[in-house]
Amino acid sequence: MKRKLYILITAIALGSLFSCEPVEDRDSLPAISLTPETLKFSVVQNPEKNNEVKLTNLDSSVIPYWSCSDANGELAHYNTNEQTVFFPFAGNYTVNFTAFTRGGAVYANPVNVKVDENDSSYFSDPKWNLLTNGVTGKTWVINFVTESPFAFVPAEYVNTTVGGGSWSWFPGSVNDVSWSGIEVKDWGEVTFDLNGGYNVSVTQTSLTTGSHEQTTTKGTYTFQRTDDFTNDRLMLNGGIQMLHTNAYYNETMSGFSFSDVRLLELTATSLRYAIIRNDGVQVVMNLIPKTAN
User: Is there a single domain that holds both residue 16 and residue 68?
Assistant: First the structure.
């Protein structure tokens, strides 16, 4: 039986309808009383191409929160006043809108969105195949083969092509990571595919020194792409974290999430993404495809 794909691509932020950014302090909001029936928002499909859906918060006195999901769970979420999302494949989706007020959260009734036709042209961007190998999937592991799994670049660093800042350090010694405190062991693997959705599976080895216990989590991801590769990001939904080691984990600044990382390089043989250390330095994780792939 031929499997049909149900996929939500990364949304395109169109900015705020009422201000540059949504209000962040709930206590500063006006005192108002809302019910699900009195919330002011819209979810509108493009009549000429209903894969495209525009989400609009019509009330500047609330903090908006959007969540898009399919039958398998949440696919992406946003807190912008105005957002356009694109569903390239036919299927049924749900959009949930929440308005945060001074008195708390008010939840709108879910809005059902039905997409009639596939539009797979979006996946013609070669970055998709580099990351996922399409429906088949692609598995990545920490690089202990050709270089150190860790690299360091300054806060101004953009990517491995553009560079940025006055320095960068990509250690090239194979299997020599004693300087970093990284334990040399199988740290697990992360797999991305487009088989029936934005699927990700992360098998993470315990961060405890000497432990080889592994835990596998599965869910969905968002792949944010930019034409000039200046802010390409991988965002894992549902609290799933990207594959990482125990070194520098406790030194990352508060608020940082391994579920939202910035790509510095994506080729057929290399996946580099940056985490932010508490002194502003970007710590780069170096991954390579698993041999079986």
Answer: yes
Radius of gyration, CA atoms only, the chain = 21
What contacts 3, CB < 8 A, 6 or more positions away? 195, 196
pTM of the model: 0.69
Tell me the pLDDT tens digit for each residue of 41-63.
999 999 988 889 999 999 998 99
CATH code for the domain in which residue 84 is found? 2.60.40.10
The residue among 101, 123, 145 that closes a domain is 123
pLDDT tens across 151-179, in order? 999 999 999 999 999 999 998 876 677 77
**One domain, residues 57 and 182:** no
